[in-house]
Structures are given as structure tokens and as C-alpha cells.
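Researcher: Next entry: SpaT protein (Clostridium perfringens).
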Amino acid sequence: MVRKMKKFKTLSISEIKEMLSSMKVIPKSIKIFFQVKKSIFIFIIIINIIAGILPVISVNVLGTLINVISTTNLDMSLKILAIYIGISFLLNIVLSIKNFLTTKFQYLLDYELVNKLMNKCANMSLEEFENPDVQDQLKHIQSQIGYRPYSIFTAILTLITSITTILSSIFSIIIWQPSAILFIITPSLAFSIFYLSISKREFQTEENNAKKSRNIWYYEFLLTKDQSFKEVKILNLAKHLIKRNNDLKKTIIKENLYNTKVRLIISIVFDFIDQICMMALMILIILSVNAGKLLIGGAVSLLRIINMVFDSFNSIMNIIYSINQNSLYMYKLINFIHEPKIKHGDKKIYRLEEINDIEINDLSFCYPGTNKKVLKNINLKINKGEKIAFFGRNGSGKSTLIKLLLGYYLVDDSMIKINGISLNDINTDNLYKLIGILFQDYCKYELTLKDNVGFGNIDEIDNEPQILESLEKAAVDFIPPNLEQQLGKWFSDGIQLSGGQWQRVALARCFFKKAQLYILDEPNAALDKMGEKKIMNTFFELTKNNIGIFVSHKIAHVMLADKIIYLDEGRIVAEGTHEQLLKTCPSYKEIYDLEFNIPINSKDVDDEFIKQKEA
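Model: Predicted structure:
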């Protein structure tokens, strides 16, 4: 249901002060512009100052030319005409250079800001990134980063040009009639108050619609991407999703049209007031000519100058509106990019050369924004050379424990230690170089086969023999070993893979890294039995002198581990070898019997286990 529009109202004095204070972000914006390309930015400013002065000089020369022509002084007329043409030619050159440089700067600015935004996202913790407010901010910033910062840039340049034009012109107007300034300034000031009001409303509308815009993007993603196409088709969801998408869009369009209508009405009213003031000034000029106080050339110059000043003041009002509206966005962008990472105290950062042991002490954890503990009093020690399995039903906390071991969420210093050092004190970039992992929700990179595997160790991405070896370890034998083969169907010449094939490619990416800790989160989810066996053999081979952790909710996948950590509702309910848990943990024994469909206490249970152990 579309909510009722708020009635438009003008700003109070305090609101005007608040909005003007938001323009303090402009110096920060200029600082960013300097960082993009200082020399070009300074040259553009100089060009805009020249572009503001030359039209005023040109008009004054034109007035002089008209006066000289009326005296029939041909020689002087031709000289002044040459000057006038020269100034006009110079102005055209200046404007052409200005257009070229501003276009070049636009590309550089977009490159710089997108690069800063990507680096910011890359340096976020998972805790920050998964925050819905952060996602709304990111969507809002990302959707407008291509034009709002550039709009501020062009607005600042236009402001420089307009102020230069006014300062260059004001002297001529004051000499003729000082009171004429009031006819120019008064309507412009009133105009600015209303424009600031609509500016604030438009930005608030955009902020309020950030979540809707994210939902619209997601509905469009579901309807246009191959991941969801088959299910949307078979479930006949297209009409339903299109309706949801359109309902949200209609709400946004209605609000935006209301703002546009208000801005149109304000513009028409003040254009009318401008014309009345302009008419009054023209009458004064005509009276001055009739009284012999002005020559025809001076009158023409004044008319042109007053018109330029009117245009410049109106331009400034539009610029203030634009800068205010865009600076609110820019303020959010700058704060987002420069907001410090979540830190856990001012600690010394350790760089690890190897991983000898992992220790977890009294670890309890709630996801940010919730009070429900998903892990409760976890205590665990993992030593080098051990193969550990995290076992439990879905939702028991297995994958959450992996996220905490990777430092994706902060916990107290004493809760997780590697080599006796708190995880919070360890340089994560260095740590991640020692870890090879297959996530449960692994990435399917719509890139080349080489990229898909080489991303596992970006420093060795050109080591093609090692990539081929990793593909063999992961049993990727379903496509020719052409490393330049495009995978997926998003780009041309790509081939689509099945779920199990994508997972094997992801496993090859994991195995490509010469790691000291290998983690497989549900590695057998999409694999056949033959694939499972080869993958697990490779895993055990790689972890002979390293630490291996694999996560599963199936006993068949964990029974060969040195130690099984059985999790249920966030607690460790049992730990030990498969044989020990069969004897000491009734619920584990029950799951085992159900999974293998073997009667309880049957001798076949032990025979089946012995066969798998020997295999």
C-alpha cells in the first residue's frame, strides 16, 4: 500500500542553518578532487575563472563598439571589432578546453571513488558487511557513485564561474544605479530558501527508499540471472515477482514525481518574479538613456550584464541546491569510506609463519543484533597433524564456529588462540595465507578455469602446472584442461557446470594453496560417491603434517577423522573417535544406525565401519 505523502513545507531558520552546515563537507570533497589529479583540478579552476571574466569583457567591448560605430569612426570601429572577435574566439577555445578537461576528470574521479569503495568493502569484517544498515548504505552509495560526486565537482566549477561573472559585472551596475542590486539579490535569496527545502526532501526520499531499491534490485536479479531462472520458471513466480517489483517502483516514482512537481512550481513562480525584476531594471535603463545619462552602447552592455548577473545568481541558487543535495550524499560516501574498521583494542599485530595448534576456551557467541546464543561454552584444542570433524545436524553451530576461527566476527581475546596468541592480535592477511578453505556457499566465478583455481593463491596464479595438479587432486576430469576456458554462462563462450562440478572446481581452488590449515565445510554436498572418496583421500594426504577440519552432518563423512566434535544446539555434546562415540554417545549411535539403515547392535555395523576404515 502506498503511504500518504507528507505536505511540503519550507525550512525553519534552524533547519536552514543545519542544511548550510552540511555544506562543510565541500572542503572534504575538494580534498578528494585534489587527490584524483591535483594539476588538472587546479588548471580547471583557472579555466573556469577565465570563463567567468571573458563574457563580461566581451559585453563591455561590444558596448564600446556600438558607441564608436555611432560616431562613424571607421578605423576605431574596426580595431574594436577585431578585439571583440578575438575575445569571442578566445572564449570558445577556453570553453572547449574546459569541456575536455572536465570530461577527463570525470573518468578519473569515477575510477578513484569506485576504487576507494571496493577497497573499503574488501577491508570490512563479515560482522560489518552483513549489517543490514551497512548494506542499505552501500546500495545507496553504489547506485549513485557514478554521478553525484561528479555533480558536486561541476557545481563547484559553475559556482566559481558564476561568482567571477558577478564580481566582474557588479562594478558596472553600481556605477549606473546602486539600488539595482536589490532587484537582483532579493528574489534570489527567497528562491534559495525554497530550493533548499525541496533539496532536503529529495535526499530524505532517496534515503527512505534505499531498502526498497535493494529489494527491487533483488527481484530483478531473480528474474534475469541463470541461478534462479529454472526455479522461477517451474514455480511460475515471474508474474508474482514482477508485481512486487512494480509495486515498489510505483511507490518510488510517485514520491519522486511529487518532488519534481514541487520543484517545477517553485521554478515557475520565481521565474515570473525574475522577469518582473528584469522588466523594472529595463525600464530604469530606458529612462537613463532618455535622460542622456547612458549612451546606446552603454545601455546594451548594461542589459546584457544585468541579464548575465540574473542568470549567475539563479545559477548560484541552483548550485546551492545541487551542492546541498549532493553533499549529503558525499558526506555519507566520505564517512563510509573513511569510517574506521571495527577493532578489538589497540593491540600488537603478530604475523604467523606456521600454525601449530588452535585453542578455543569457553567460547559463546550471539550474532550481532540478536540475543540468542548460537554457540555455548565451546572448549577445544586442535594440534598440528590432527584431522578434526565438526559433526551435527543443520543449525547446530558448525559453520558459525568456522567463521569465528577465521576471525570474521570478534570475540573476547582469550576465547580463540593460535599458537598461544589471541586471534584478535594476529594479522589476518598473513593468517589467511596459511589457510585453504572450501565454504559451504562457495563462489562460482564466472571467469576462466585458470582464475577459478588460481584465486586460491593469487601470488601463484600463473603457476599453470600447479593449477593442473590441483584440478587432478579435486577430480576435475569433466572438462578439457584448457585453463582459458570460460566457466558459466554470463559471458560469451562459457560452459555451464553442474553443482557437483562447480564444487570440484572450488575444491581445486582450496587445494591450490600450500596451506597449513585446510577447512572443508560440507565438501560432499554435491559430489557422487566416487568423487567423495577421491576428495577425502586428497584431503587426508594434504593434512598429514597440517591441521585438517571438515564439517558435515553425515556420519559417513566424519567417521575417518582423528577426532569428531559432535555439536548440538551450539554445544559440544560429545567428542572422540568414531568408535568411542558409538559406544559412549547414544544420539550419535542412533544417527549412525538411521543413516546406514542397520539394525541396532547388528554385527554388520562393525563390519561396515571396518570396510570404510580400510578403504
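Model: Note for the record: Strands lie at 357-366, 373-383, 387-391, 416-418, 421-422, 435-438, 517-521, 547-552, 563-568, 571-576.
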